[in-house]
Specification:
It is a single chain. The protein is of the alpha+beta class and 208 residues long. α1 runs antiparallel to α2.
C-alpha cells in the first residue's frame, strides 16, 4: 500500500537532492540569496518526501477496508480451568496460536478512516488487528487472576495510528481514528470469524 506514496517519496527525495546540489553550486558562486532560496526549496521537498515515506511505512500492515470483511478465523480449544488455546488464521494466510486465560476471547483493532481529499493518494479506510487476550466474565477474577495478552499487529518503525495521536498536523487528512474491540464468551470448542466493518469489530460463530 499504496504505490503512489512510494513514488511520491522517491520523487520528492530526488528533487530535494537536485536542489541541494543547485544550492551548493550557487553557494560556490557566492550567490547567497539564490543559494538560500534554493536550499529552502530543497528542504521543503525533503520534508515532503519524508512525510510521504512516514505515511507509507506507518500504514504497512494495515489492510484496506471497503465493507465488512473477515480479518481472521479463530478455532478455540478449551484446556480446562479457564484456559484455552486460540488458533488464528489471518486473512493474509498467516497462522498463529495463543494460550489464553479467562472465560472469553477478546480482540481489538485500530481503524483509520481518511478524508476524501487524501483518497486520491490511494489512502482509504484501513484496519489492523492489534491485540488478543483472555477476558474473565467475573470482575473480581478480572482484577485478581492472571492476565494474558499477545500482539497481533506487525512491529514497525513507524505506526500511522501512533503518529496521528502524537502529531496534530495529520488531523486535516484523517476523518477518524479509533480503536474497536469485541469479545465472546467461550463455553465449548467453537470456530469464530473476526469481522471488521466501518463501524468496528464483530465476532460471529460459524460451523467448523
Amino acid at each position: 500500500m499504496p504505490n503512489l506514496l512510494f513514488i511520491l517519496m522517491i520523487g520528492f527525495g530526488l528533487l530535494s537532492l537536485v536542489f541541494f546540489i543547485l544550492a551548493f553550486v550557487a553557494l560556490r558562486r557566492r550567490s547567497i540569496v539564490k543559494s538560500t532560496i534554493v536550499l529552502l526549496v530543497a528542504l521543503l521537498f525533503l520534508t515532503l518526501g519524508l512525510l510521504f515515506g512516514a505515511v507509507s511505512v506507518g500504514t504497512k500492515g494495515y489492510l484496506a477496508l471497503t465493507q465488512e470483511e473477515v480479518a481472521a478465523v479463530v478455532r478455540t480449544e478449551p484446556m480446562g480451568n479457564k484456559v484455552f488455546l486460540a488458533h488464528f488464521e489471518f486473512s493474509d494466510g498467516r497462522k498463529a496460536s495463543y494460550r489464553l486465560e479467562g472465560d472469553a476471547l477478546y480482540v481489538d483493532a485500530h481503524i483509520l478512516k481518511w478524508k476524501p481529499v487524501v483518497n486520491i493518494l490511494g489512502l482509504h479506510t484501513v484496519y489492523e488487528l492489534d491485540r488478543v487476550s483472555g477476558r474473565y466474565m467475573n470482575i473480581e477474577e478480572e482484577i485478581k487472576r492472571p492476565r494474558t495478552m499477545f500482539l497481533l499487529s506487525e512491529k514497525k518503525p513507524v505506526n500511522m495510528f501512533n503518529l496521528r495521536t502524537r502529531y496534530s498536523f495529520l488531523q486535516p487528512f484523517l476523518d477518524a481514528e479509533y480503536g474497536s474491540a469485541a469479545f465472546v464468551e467461550l463455553k465449548k470448542p467453537v470456530t469464530l470469524e473476526i469481522r471488521v466493518s466501518t463501524t468496528g469489530l464483530l465476532i460471529r460463530e460459524i460451523e467448523s
